[in-house]
Amino acid sequence: DTVLTQSPALAVSPGERVTISCRASESVSTLMHWYQQKPGQQPTLLIYLASNLESGVPARFSGSGSGTDFTLTIDPVEADDTATYYCQQSWNDPLTFGSGTKLEIK
Amino acid sequence: EVQLQESGPGLVKPSQSLSLTCSVTGYSITSNYWGWIRKFPGNKMEWMGYISYSGSTSYNPSLKSRISITRDTSKNQFFLQLNSVTTEDTATYYCARSNWELDWFAYWGQGTLVTVSS
Question: pLDDT tens across B26-36, in order?
Fold first, then answer.
């Protein structure tokens, strides 16, 4: 299975720029997607195919990368962005998710 | 707007079967792909499998001997059955829709917590 590695946690102040990384154990081309999950809620899609912003998602969110290294950027961060962020690949079967990065807003 | 809602028992005994229903409104399950994903305590997420618009299925090999996904198109529902559960199957279970068999998930249910305990 393709393993996706994310850093466990980040803490930033409102107004700052934050980058959340996801590294794949093998190439996934650009078939990487990002989700936001707040406590008690379902995941919501932010970015699909590495860099495409899902409809309705604020332009503060952006994604980049290809192959094995991917980044989700939030600029500027707002207090409401407190959540866990997951990457997910769809290049290889089975689909796999990263372990999540918990973002704390100071 | 497409909406998904999971339902089923919140408590299952070890060695028994876990059965969940995903009820879909606003979209027909005879289109697209309909999957199950679970999130374990501690945040690990696992894709379990899907049923397609035609009724074909695909499962995560880690579950292949224990899982079955079926559907009732007349009720616009699809179902998850996981056999021989252990405490390791305690998780929040989500149903979700994707456009293709290997794809991202734009629509999710709210999730239902299933605890496996005697």
Answer: 999 999 999 99
Which of chain A's residues have a Cβ under 8 Å away from the Cβ of B104?
Answer: 33, 45, 48-49, 88, 90
Tokens of B36: 């199950």
Convert the pLDDT of each residue in A60-74 to its tens digit: 999 999 999 999 999
Is the CB of B106 inside 8 Å of chain A's CB atoms? yes
What is the separation of C-alpha B81 from the centre of its chain, rounded to a whole number of angstroms? 8
Task: Give yes or no for A90 touching B (CB within 8 A).
Answer: yes
- Asked if A86 lies within 8 A of B45 by C-beta distance, the reply is yes
Helix (H, G, I), strand (E, B) or coil at A81: helix
Confidence grade of residue A48 (pLDDT, cut at 50, 70, 90): very high
